[in-house]
């Protein structure tokens, strides 16, 4: 890596769709895409340039206006056609970023796509498919660092978006690096952050000491690292209100307006939030047909303010006092030390329309409300004429003029009646003959933004956006640690150390990171972590067996079939014979004890082997069980392992006390030779470790069968060590 590190972040939001780090939507709400690229010095170079001064500061982030590109529409518009998002949307953005980042730095440059409120409103399945496609397309066509899509490409909650915005605001204002220069009293030196987009609204601030102690469990722990390796921690309250952005608020307002009239036959809906005489469709679009229902503007801004107030939902139940909007808990705001900076719609609606024709006044809330009333009370024909003459600047077009009165009323209600910003203006400032927006920004910087609320777009020539906060956090995490005990950079619950829900800025920073790879069929079958491993392996073996079966030839297939068939039939015959023997008393449960099932199976195997070694002439003389069903299914004869001259089958005798028996109730019939007895003993004693040590009182501690003539006399009985030699 060279002198500079680079970073690319994509914001898939409601108003602008995708951005690559830092910007926010324009004044209208047409979804779009922006790409921003950032860079910062390598930490070793930064330390060298700083010398012994200002080492306790965060990495310095750089960007240029030429490193920004915007396209339309937004990412969420591809929810029903995810296969098109790559070539039709991402390609232009990522190629733009690739052209900016030096070729030798591309592989080390992280890329993030962080979706916000607009993508949160997309249903889960479609959202997942879309994000997966974004990941695969980026990996297949670009070499940016993307180690884990679950970390680098995701939909972030509103609280994360708000926290990133708080980081960006305080970073640009210098409170992290120079806290002494921003002393607000009571030991407080950071600024609050307000953001309003199309679908959601966020607030983030550090409460005063009293509220921080009282609501410690509601705060988020944020940890950053300076270029000298030291850390700084902040505890911030963050919350988000989904559907409290200007677009979603407008939708809820129109739903309430239509419900209030309550008739399906109503064609005209009076709307005090539209300029007088303006007619639009029910979704505030140009009216194409006179037969469809329409909104008719009345231009009564006071009524518009009253009509939007219920949307704050101030009466919602508050389970955890205090609450601001929609019953959501927020610690009490101390406006003596909590000074808020508002971005996005707080800036666009207040300045891009109502400052262009006023060059002699600084902005304040009271002045702003008067300007809104002046604009919205005009009839539509006058406003349309002013738009054509660029009376309010080139940014105000017809579509924005449709919405601006509603937006202004909503923002005023949110600020004053919702959040509680005092209804006071800035101190009087002398007229300089320059643009009021520029004047108030310079005035705010001199004062340190110490007013309760200040809307901004740029600070120190850098646009304020929550996306900048993501890069600040990532760059801080890249600073090498001085000791192994250094705590990581990131954020989580307000507890000491590293909380269980701690979020790291990048995948490679995770404890014991695992390299990301696509799951292959080998992983599915043989990886123990896969939930499909066992059924997949069974299916794999079945397929191999089936293929082998059809390739082995017709003759072999028939033999295999008959062998399997005989196996099942023999098993059934044994089961029937065993039941009959038990019923007749051939097997004495008291003799075998608790382990009788195991030994009965051994007996059955011994008898079966004896039958296989018997001659045909002896078959008629042996029928103790009369199991005729089992006889035809015996497998072909094979040579006996006990000898070659077995003239007859042995008989089963239920009297084990006879000295003429071999043992286990097997009587030596006529013609049974000594070697046959020996063979039986070898066969049965091979598993006699399964017999209990004490055979019962009838055996006097001795076995009921003769020892094998093939065993050495010095060999100890298996009874001495029943399991050791198994």
From TrEMBL:
InterPro entries: GDA1_CD39_NTPase (IPR000407). The chain crosses the membrane at residues 534-553. Pfam families: GDA1_CD39 (PF01150). Residues 614-657, 692-726 are annotated as: Disordered. The keyword Glycosyltransferase does not apply. Keywords: Hydrolase, Membrane, Transmembrane, Transmembrane helix. PROSITE patterns: GDA1_CD39_NTPASE. Residues 615-627 have a biased composition (Low complexity). Belongs to the GDA1/CD39 NTPase family. This is Nucleoside phosphatase family-domain-containing protein. It comes from Aspergillus lucknowensis.
